[in-house]
Design brief:
The protein is of the alpha+beta class and about 130 residues long. The chain is about 35% helix and about 35% strand. It folds into two domains: about 1-40; about 40-130, OB fold (Dihydrolipoamide Acetyltransferase, E2P) (Beta Barrel), CATH 2.40.50.860. The protein contains two helices and five strands. The chain is elongated and about 70 Å long. The relative contact order is 0.19.
């Protein structure tokens, strides 16, 4: 009878340790996600023609865009990919496809999943340029 009680206690202790470890992993993952999305590694501006803007994803819908950066006329452009999480900005960018724009962005490295964006570059705002 004493042996059975100690086996039950050890099994209960292992279960509690496992639950605490799992909760700790989930908590650390949540903190890392919050940190990587709220702290910008870098920020800057890029200019070019907004070539494509779309909503993508099977489960996690994200807004993704392509900015064609022309260095010299007649030379193939460099394509720069970016994302945005702001619905209002996404609507404005969608109406600017084909226009020359200047895009302000922040870079967020280490975001643990593609549910937030496919790229580390998040568009914050933009202005249309005069041609």
């Amino acid at each position: 009878m004493v042996v059975e009680e100690s086996a039950v206690r050890r099994g209960g202790r292992f279960g509690r340790i496992l639950i605490v470890a799992l909760l700790l992993v989930v908590l650390l993952g949540g903190l890392w996600t919050w940190f990587s999305l709220s702290w910008a590694y870098s920020e800057g501006e890029r200019a070019g023609v907004l070539q494509k803007f779309s909503s993508k994803g099977w489960i996690c819908k994200t807004y993704e865009g392509e900015l064609a950066q022309y260095v010299v006329g007649g030379v193939a452009p460099q394509i720069w990919y970016f994302s945005t999480r702001d619905d209002k900005l996404a609507q404005q960018l969608s109406s600017a496809v084909g226009d020359q724009i200047r895009l302000h962005y922040t870079e967020h490295r280490g975001v643990p999943t593609n549910c937030f964006a496919e790229t580390p570059y998040f568009a914050e705002s933009f202005t249309r340029m005069q041609r």
